[in-house]
């Protein structure tokens, strides 16, 4: 196993962003390490992360070669199943409240899934690039890409000023359980039956970093480091803390995005109305989220579960939890970062 890992690392060094322009990734995909055990898509290891082949074929090259960010763009970044759906709803309702007041009965979130209100930048990029260009400013877009795979025009590296990035992280055990359950529910939309995919199999792959976007802790760590280095450009949120104080975090989110709430809005209860509109309970009960599907065919109901902290204990044994905790603890040694947890 160690020899195999070493050969993978050697192959990785030859195909890192330092030697392969991200816009040209597609041509070297067949040479990248392959993982097929996490459904529904085959994964390839690139730049030290396991990413779906489809993302490497279209998403990353398209974003790097064709996407033109605007200074007013806001990007919502996350590792999958870390509070992405909730963050999309909160950010959209907050940033767009002048054109879509949260009090309105016809608010987009009342008849559209948050994933249709806030598009993922890299998913089906070639098919949606004209639609993204047509969106009015300020745009709010989402990404699951690691920070190191975002183009400099977004991050502000080099000559670029960059865009605002909001990142939400979640405790690894809850992330794993949510990801595993989502995979089993959503994979059929891609023609894959994942009912036999067990939590034990998911745990072993997750601990090895072999899941879409993994390793999760490295994904989180990249954005956290940037939030420490440039807090004016990267806002780092912890899902568990947002659960405890949603209104305080909506205010923080608004200030960061450059659309802080006025005294009049505070008096009218706009913040609490946004929190209520975007609550997982409210969103889950919307007709569109009970029976509809996203543009990519995934059933909307797949994105709504309990949304609580500590639910991992209902699906993992203490031994399984300990094994994941140990992997994460070892990986984060001397980084200065730890995951917050209310359990």
UniProtKB/TrEMBL annotation:
<keyword id="KW-0808">Transferase</keyword>
<feature type="region of interest" description="Disordered">
    <location>
        <begin position="1"/>
        <end position="22"/>
    </location>
</feature>
<dbReference type="GO" id="GO:0008146">
    <property type="term" value="F:sulfotransferase activity"/>
</dbReference>
<dbReference type="Pfam" id="PF00685">
    <property type="entry name" value="Sulfotransfer_1"/>
</dbReference>
<dbReference type="InterPro" id="IPR000863">
    <property type="entry name" value="Sulfotransferase_dom"/>
</dbReference>
<dbReference type="InterPro" id="IPR027417">
    <property type="entry name" value="P-loop_NTPase"/>
</dbReference>
<protein>
    <recommendedName>
        <fullName>Sulfotransferase</fullName>
        <ecNumber>2.8.2.-</ecNumber>
    </recommendedName>
</protein>
<comment type="similarity">
    <text>Belongs to the sulfotransferase 1 family.</text>
</comment>
<feature type="domain" description="Sulfotransferase">
    <location>
        <begin position="71"/>
        <end position="336"/>
    </location>
</feature>
């Amino acid at each position: 196993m160690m020899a195999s890992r070493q050969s993978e690392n050697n192959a990785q060094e030859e195909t890192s962003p330092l030697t392969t322009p991200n816009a040209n990734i597609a041509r070297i995909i067949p040479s990248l390490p392959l993982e097929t055990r996490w459904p529904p898509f085959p994964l390839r290891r690139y730049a030290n992360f396991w990413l779906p082949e489809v993302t490497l074929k279209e998403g990353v090259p398209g974003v790097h070669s064709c996407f033109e960010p605007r200074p007013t763009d806001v990007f919502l970044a996350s590792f999958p199943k870390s509070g992405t759906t909730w963050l999309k709803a909160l950010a959209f309702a907050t940033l767009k409240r002048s054109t879509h007041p949260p009090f309105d009965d016809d608010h987009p979130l009342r008849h559209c899934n948050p994933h249709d209100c806030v598009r993922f930048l890299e998913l089906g990029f070639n098919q949606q690039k004209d639609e993204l260009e047509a969106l009015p400013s300020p745009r709010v877009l989402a990404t699951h890409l690691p920070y190191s795979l975002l183009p400099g025009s977004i991050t502000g590296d080099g000559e670029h000023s960059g865009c605002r990035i909001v990142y939400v992280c979640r405790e690894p055990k809850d992330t794993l359980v949510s990801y595993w359950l989502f995979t089993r529910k959503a994979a059929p939309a891609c023609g894959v039956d994942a009912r036999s995919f067990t939590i034990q199999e998911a745990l072993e792959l997750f601990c090895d970093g072999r899941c879409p976007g993994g390793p999760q802790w490295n994904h989180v760590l990249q954005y956290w480091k940037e939030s420490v280095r440039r807090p004016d450009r990267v806002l780092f949120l912890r899902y568990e803390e947002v659960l405890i104080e949603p209104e305080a975090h909506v205010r923080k989110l608004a200030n960061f995005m450059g659309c802080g709430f006025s005294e009049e809005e505070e008096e009218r209860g706009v913040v609490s109305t946004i929190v209520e509109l975007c609550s997982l309970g409210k969103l889950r009960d919307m007709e569109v989220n009970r029976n509809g599907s996203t543009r990519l065919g995934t059933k909307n109901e797949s994105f709504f579960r309990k949304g609580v902290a500590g639910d991992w204990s209902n699906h993992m044994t203490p031994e399984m939890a300990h094994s994941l905790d140990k992997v994460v603890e070892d990986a984060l040694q001397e980084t200065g970062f730890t995951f917050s947890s209310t359990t």
